[in-house]
Every structure is written in structure tokens, then in C-alpha cells.
């Protein structure tokens, strides 16, 4: 099976996408396509876009953020402020037939202008708000109410989270939408303008997960700290000074947790006292504080190693809390053993552990590919796709229409 997949190549071999983007969502969409075999050409302003030096930075000063979201792409730099530079990008798009962007609309690069040259153009546009208006992950999240249900129960005020969840979801929606449009073009020959709004993705998710309907029916979500909403789950302190997360999502999880901890009789006594049935998620959630009271001493009397041994071979859902530094320092060997992770020699940054695509095709896990240096492929791409000779490229570079490799 794996040999067959290798012989067949990657699913998107032969697809070419011109990407004009920055920050998270659009670059993630492009990288997802690149990891599936597409030739993704990221076009930036000479000197780099607004995310070229975004933190975190490597010791060399290069952006780990930028490198992490542009693996496997080719990089071209052009003066997008000039009509001549935009004409070169328009030529690339006309040749490629697909564009993915969250960039501001520029004369010569609008969908209406480009489709005059390429009627079957697929143009995928990420916007902040549908119909116009700026928005980023953090402002969308604030507007939807999530920071007001995040954090300790007695906290007064919003708690922002560090994961840009809507950007990530948007990036994957962009990739899925682009592939759907490309499939339609294969069937019908028709191009497509596809727009994805960051605020729409967040609002749809809030609706799909029941947050909106819950509020409409008079039960808006409230803060519950580290408790798991709708079932039993929370963090517990261990005897060796650590904390672990333990939770249940089914009657089987609950039975295994009681068996592993030996607290079945205590839980049954609590059930009788409360008139509850802890095989039901609703009752486990309702009486979560009482249940935490019987489990807290058990965890406090054991080390993480003893807890792991007790839960071995059961369905109990649990994890030890670790920070990123601990994950890398303590489990470097384990990380290296992960099929997803490979050692990447990233130009300008050096060797470090990096992920490939989480998609395993035909049993094969492709290693991570390095991100390009800014402008690394400018001459290669313009020569290959637009047939520009070296003297023409030299002239464009001398006039600052195209950029140098950084």
C-alpha cells in the first residue's frame, strides 16, 4: 500500500497556486496544499510582508513563525506597489490559474481584472468580515464571547487565549474550499470566486457547537474554570508536585476510572447520598465539585509515574501538564521518534525539530520541507513560468521591480 502511494506521487502534483498572503490563515491554507504536492508560490513585497519578522524569532533573528507557516513553498518578491510589479504577478496568476490571498485588493490583481485574462480562474479570498471591515482572530474571538467564558470561575473580566483557533480553522477552510472549486472546474471548466470571512468561520463554529442556541434558550455558557463542560473532568495536583488532567466522556471511562483508583464504593455511597447516577454525564457534571472531593486525595498521594501505572491498559483519559520547554527538553527523544516530526535544516535558522503534514497518505509520512528564503525562487519562477531571460530579470532587479534573495 505504501509503495503504491509512493509510486502514485502526491494528490496535488501538477496543481499550481499563487499565494499573496501574510500571518496565519492564508499561509496555513497554502502550506496545507503544498504538503499535498501543490506548487505553491508565495509572492511578497520586496523586503517581505508584515509577518516577515513576526515573533517568535530564532537566535539568528529570523522568524520561526514565518518559516513554520511557509514550509515547502517557493518564494518570489516583487514590488507590488508598482504597476509593472503587479503586471508580473498577474502574469503568474494567469499562467497558474489559482490564487489564494488575504492581501488588500490592488489594481491589476482583482478577480474581475484577472478573469478577463483567465476565464476559468479560481480566486480564493480571505477577509476579516463579510461585506468589509477588518478583523483578526483575537478581535473576532472577543466579539463572540469566548474570553468571557474562559478562565477561573471567580475572575472578573475577559481572558484571552493564546491559540488562534479561528485562523487555524480558516486556513483549513481555505484549502478545502479551493480544492472544491478546483474539482468543480475539472467537471465543468468554470472558474470560481470564493470568499471566506474569518468572522463567519468563528460564528459558524460557535453555532455548530451549540453556544448560540444555548444562549437563545436562556442558558448562556458561564465560566467553570478548569472543569469539563457537560461531564466530569478537571486538573488534579499529584504527590510529586505536578498536575494532571483527568476526564470522562462515557460510562466506560467512568467505570475504568473508578476501577483504577479503587474509589468505586466511595462513589456509590456518594450517589446514594445525592440521589445521583454517575453513569450519566449530566449527573457527573452536576456534582463535579463533590466528585473532585473524593478524587483529590487519591491523586495527591501518588506520583505521576504511579498514576500512569494505575491507568495503564484502561480507557481513562488523562494527561500530565507540560510546558513547551519541558516537552522539548524532557521528551526530545520521544519527539524525534514521532513519525510527524523530522529534523529540519532551515536556511537562516539552522537545525531544529519541525512537523510535516499530519495527513498520512497510503501509510507514508512525508518529512517536513524547509521554508524558502524570502525571494529565493524569484528568478527560477519567472524564468520557468514567464520565460523571462536572465537579462530581463537583471533589468527588473536593477529597477527594483523584483527583489533579491534575502
Give the arrangement of secondary structure elements.
Elements: H1 2-8, E1 16-20, H2 25-35, E2 39-45, H3 64-68, E3 74-78, H4 83-96, E4 98-101, H5 111-117, E5 122-127, H6 137-144, H7 165-188, E6 192-197, H8 198-208, H9 211-216, E7 233-237, E8 243-247, H10 251-261, H11 264-274, H12 281-286, H13 288-300, H14 304-311, E9 317-320, H15 324-330, H16 332-337, E10 341-346, E11 350-355, H17 378-386, H18 390-398
Parallel strand pairs: 1-2, 1-4, 2-3, 4-5, 5-6
Antiparallel strand pairs: 7-8, 8-9, 10-11
Helix pairs in contact: 2-7, 6-8, 7-8
Which descriptors apply to this entry?
alpha/beta, 406 residues, 2 domains
Strand order of the largest sheet: 3-2-1-4-5-6
What is the level-2 CATH architecture name of the largest domain? 3-Layer(aba) Sandwich
Give the overall shape.
Answer: elongated
Query: What is the fold named in CATH at topology level of the largest domain?
Result: Rossmann fold
For the secondary structure, the number of strands is 11
Helix content: 40-55%
Helix segment tally? 18
Number of structural units classed as domains:
2
CATH class of the largest domain: Alpha Beta
Order of secondary-structure elements? HEHEHEHEHEHHEHHEEHHHHHEHHEEHH
Oligomer: single chain
How far apart, in Å, are the first and last alpha carbons?
41 Å
Q: Which whole number gives the mean pLDDT?
A: 95
Give the class from helix and strand content and strand pairing. alpha/beta
- Parts with pLDDT < 50 across at least 5 consecutive residues: none
Question: How is the main sheet built?
Answer: 6 strands, parallel
CATH superfamily of the largest domain: Crotonobetainyl-coa:carnitine coa-transferase, domain 1
Percent of residues in beta strands: 5-15%
Amino acid at each position: 500500500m505504501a509503495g503504491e502511494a509512493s509510486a502514485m506521487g502526491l494528490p496535488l502534483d501538477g496543481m499550481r497556486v499563487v499565494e499573496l498572503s501574510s500571518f496565519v490563515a492564508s499561509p496555513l491554507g497554502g502550506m496545507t496544499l503544498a504538503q499535498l504536492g501543490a506548487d505553491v508560490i508565495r509572492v511578497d513585497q520586496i523586503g517581505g510582508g508584515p509577518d516577515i519578522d513576526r515573533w517568535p524569532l530564532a537566535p539568528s533573528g529570523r522568524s520561526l513563525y514565518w518559516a513554520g507557516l511557509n514550509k515547502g513553498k517557493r518564494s518570489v518578491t516583487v514590488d507590488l506597489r508598482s504597476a509593472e510589479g503587479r503586471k508580473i504577478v498577474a502574469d503568474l496568476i494567469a499562467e497558474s490559474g489559482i490564487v489564494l490571498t488575504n492581501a488588500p485588493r490592488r489594481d491589476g490583481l482583482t478577480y474581475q481584472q484577472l478573469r478577463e485574462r483567465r476565464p476559468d480562474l479560481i480566486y480564493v479570498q480571505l477577509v476579516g468580515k463579510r461585506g468589509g471591515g477588518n478583523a483578526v482572530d483575537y478581535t473576532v474571538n472577543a466579539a463572540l464571547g469566548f474570553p468571557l467564558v474562559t478562565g477561573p470561575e471567580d475572575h472578573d473580566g475577559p481572558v484571552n487565549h493564546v491559540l488562534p483557533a479561528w485562523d487555524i480553522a480558516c486556513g483549513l477552510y481555505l484549502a478545502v474550499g479551493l480544492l472544491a472549486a478546483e474539482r468543480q472546474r475539472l467537471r465543468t471548466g468554470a472558474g470560481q470566486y470564493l470568499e471566506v470571512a474569518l468572522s463567519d468561520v468563528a460564528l459558524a463554529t460557535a453555532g455548530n457547537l451549540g453556544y448560540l442556541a444555548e444562549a437563545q434558550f436562556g442558558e448562556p455558557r458561564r465560566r467553570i474554570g478548569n472543569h469539563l463542560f457537560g461531564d466530569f473532568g478537571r486538573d488534579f495536583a499529584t504527590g510529586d508536585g505536578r498536575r494532571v488532567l483527568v476526564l470522562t466522556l462515557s460510562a466506560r471511562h467512568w467505570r475504568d476510572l473508578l476501577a483504577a483508583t479503587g474509589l468505586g464504593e466511595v462513589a456509590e455511597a456518594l450517589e446514594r447520598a445525592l440521589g445521583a447516577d454517575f453513569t450519566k454525564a449530566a449527573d457527573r457534571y452536576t456534582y463535579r465539585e463533590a466528585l473532585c472531593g473524593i478524587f483529590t486525595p487519591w491523586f495527591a498521594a501518588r506520583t505521576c509515574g504511579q498514576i500512569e501505572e494505575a491507568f495503564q491498559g484502561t480507557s481513562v483519559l488523562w494527561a500530565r501538564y507540560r510546558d513547551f520547554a519541558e516537552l522539548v527538553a524532557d521528551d526530545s527523544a520521544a519527539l524525534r521518534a514521532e513519525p510527524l516530526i523530522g529534523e529540519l535544516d532551515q536556511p537562516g535558522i539552522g537545525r531544529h525539530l519541525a512537523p510535516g503534514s499530519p495527513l498520512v497518505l497510503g501509510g507514508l509520512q512525508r518529512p517536513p520541507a524547509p521554508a524558502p528564503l524570502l525571494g529565493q525562487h524569484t528568478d527560477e519562477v519567472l524564468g520557468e513560468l514567464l520565460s523571462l531571460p536572465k537579462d530581463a530579470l537583471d533589468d527588473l532587479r536593477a529597477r527594483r521591480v523584483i527583489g533579491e534573495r534575502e
